[in-house]
Amino acid sequence: xxxxxxxxxxxxxxxxxxxxxxxxxxxxxxxxxxxxxxxxxxxxxxxxxxxxxxxxxxxxxxxxxxxxxxxxxxxxxxxxxxxxxxxxxxxxxxxxxxxxxxxxxxxxxxxxxxxxxxxxxxxxxxxxxxxxxxxxxxxxxxxxxxxxxxxxxxxxxxxxxxxxxxxxxxxxxxxxxxxxxxxxxxxxxxxxxxxxxxxxxxxxxxxxxxxxxxxxxxxxxxxxxxxxxxxxxxxxxxxxxxxxxxxxxxxxxxxxxxxxxxxxxxxxxxxxxxxxxxxxxxxxxxxxxxxxxxxxxxxxxxxxxxxxxxxxxxxxxxxxxxxxxxxxxxxxxxxxxxxxxxxxxxxxxxxxxxxx
Length: 356
Hints:
Elements: H1 2-14, E1 35-36, H2 43-49, E2 56-57, E3 59-60, H3 87-95, E4 102-105, H4 108-120, E5 125-128, E6 138-140, H5 144-152, H6 156-162, E7 164-168, E8 170-171, E9 181-190, E10 193-205, E11 208-221, H7 236-248, E12 256-257, E13 259-270, E14 276-287, H8 294-306, E15 312-321, E16 334-341, E17 348-355
Parallel strand pairs: 1-2
Antiparallel strand pairs: 3-12, 4-7, 5-6, 5-7, 8-13, 9-10, 9-13, 10-11, 11-15, 13-14, 15-17, 16-17
Helix pairs in contact: 1-8
């Protein structure tokens, strides 16, 4: 919440407007007001609030379609599939090999079927609950009994609505560091002008190896392909996938998004015969809302607008958990949170962006 208020103030400056406050039923709004959405909203909600393109940051999308469930296809002849599942969209991603080998299942029977199909292909399965992010509710399946336990604990109502994903487990990044390389990329559409970016996420600190610490970003004006040739070659595959996904988004009925972010994983598929499979790059998680790297995305937008001759600019978002160190945040940084106690009173947090 506090982060998005900071982002709203930055966007107001970029668009030469002013921040008027957090929405409440008593807040008087105007047709051209710009909205920073805390999360994706349904088309019906957007219509009731008068939110229209391009006057928002985030996504207007069906609740199911906003989940990573739709990045995989159901099995052939599935037992259960929601009526509004976007088959054409998921098929386009699978056909173009944008996602890891895997399936989405909406019944306990189909979860077992998905596990058996991956096992027959010698692939170790990873369980993903699409309602969680940042690695939460994700598990490498060590045995059939572990799968049994996860299935028993699964809420059938949520399962029928949002599904469970079983996909290939990924090990080792290309740099042999023992874990997958976490990349991100996406684009912002601010006032009908597109800014694309790619980057690499950083995780881990003492006692919190999965804690997100920020993202290093390279940004350019234009669609994702505008980055090609202006960024290190290691991002080329990611850029091609970003472009392919952006071209597939119209297959989501009634979708309208102005901030689309994709997380990517680069590593090797784990096989159940003790061997390591081929190197892969795949999109794993879509986001249609402001995120942890958005401060750096907006920082780069400001710099691109101030320096139109520059093809690309670089910056990094940073998150620090704990009391502020006076020398920690550089003077040129763009700060959106400064010692705000947030996320369940876990202590003070600072969030900012700085040039690389």
